[in-house]
Amino acid sequence: MAGPSFVELRERGLLVVAGEDRRAFLQGLISNDVEKVTPDRAIHAAFLTAQGKYLHDFFLAAYPGGTDEALILDGEAARLADLQRRLSIYKLRAKVTLAPASGDLAVFAAFGNGALAALKLASESGAARPYAGGIAFVDPRLAALGARVTAPRDAALAALRDDGFAAADFAAYDRLRLEAGVPDGSRDLAVEKAILLESGFDELNGVDWKKGCYIGQELTARTKYRGLIKKRLMPVRVEGAVPPPGTPVTLDGQEAGEMRSGSDGIGLALLRLEAVASAAEAGRTLEAGAARITPVKPAWAQF
């Protein structure tokens, strides 16, 4: 990979969570421990249905500028209003406010060789520090994905360029993510259907097993401790045109899974572990449409 690069993630949106009850409010709703969030650390978490199915995932950090008086939530821009609406249902009498961030704040991915060193960040998932009037933090899911910067757009652009980062296109960052086997929100997780542990949220630091209850916690824990995971989202090498999301994956004509996001010879697919093992043992090939696909187990995965 080339030297440090950056790309503005225009498909991300920001929600400010403020008020004296902000931590207690979120703690009872999301999959990770809100108390871990400090000016020195950010987290990744999910918001689930009562049945433990995926609704939203997001990054949570101290409000840009290092203050501990508010938290900032980085989620999918196109679905941010839905997330705000769903969270607001649980406000009741809690002293908390939920509002979109000011228009000048932007989200950037900073990645490539030397990216974390250039940002003066330790190579530890979630490590954070003030940056360009905002905050920079190592991707809490996987440090190999680099860092995220949430800051006023012009200040962030100037700081990143001063620190030796070159502008890149989104495809370069997306390929890094696909090769790492890390899902990208609703592009890879079916809303109200996906199970967190099928998508690696445990290994990717998105679930805290020691915190108290949250929505969907009981079924998430039951899935883990009863070993009920039969499918996993994983990277696949693609021979031929990358099939569109939703394309069935088959083994000898039998259903084996479904494609998710992909680009330029690499993609993610939700696959039955039994089918993957069977194909590997017999030297057979998985197919998706006219393409042949080969599953790749990420180094971080424990299945």
Second CATH tier, the architecture of the largest domain: 2-Layer Sandwich
Q: What is the fold-level CATH name, i.e. the topology of the largest domain? A: Gyrase A, domain 2
- Cα-atom radius of gyration: 19 Å
**Strand order, sheet with most strands:** 8-9-10-7-1-11
Quick one: how many beta strands? 17
Q: SSE order, as H and E? A: EEHEEEHEEHEEEHEHHEEEEHEE
Unreliable spans are none
Secondary structure blueprint with pairings:
Layout: E1 5-8, E2 12-18, H1 22-27, E3 43-48, E4 54-62, E5 70-76, H2 80-88, E6 97-100, E7 105-111, H3 115-118, E8 128-131, E9 134-138, E10 147-152, H4 153-162, E11 166-167, H5 170-180, H6 217-225, E12 231-239, E13 248-251, E14 254-263, E15 266-272, H7 273-282, E16 286-288, E17 291-295
Parallel strand pairs: 1-11
Antiparallel strand pairs: 1-7, 2-5, 2-6, 3-4, 4-5, 7-10, 8-9, 9-10, 12-15, 12-17, 13-14, 13-16, 14-15, 16-17
Describe the protein in words:
- The chain has helices at about 20-25, 80-90, 115-120, 155-160, 170-180, 215-225, 275-280; strands spanning about 5-10, 10-20, 45-50, 55-60, 70-75, 95-100, 105-110, 130, 135-140, 145-150, 165, 230-240, 250, 255-265, 265-270, 285-290, 290-295.
- The chain has about 300 residues and is α+β, with helices and mostly antiparallel strands.
- It has two domains: about 5-180, Gyrase A, domain 2 (2-Layer Sandwich); about 195-295, Beta Barrel (Elongation Factor Tu (Ef-tu), domain 3), CATH 2.40.30.160.
- The protein has a six-stranded mixed β-sheet with strand order 8-9-10-7-1-11, with helices on one face. A six-stranded antiparallel barrel has the order 12-15-14-13-16-17. The protein has a five-stranded antiparallel β-sheet with strand order 3-4-5-2-6, with helices on one face.
- The protein starts with a strand and ends in an 8-residue tail after the last strand.
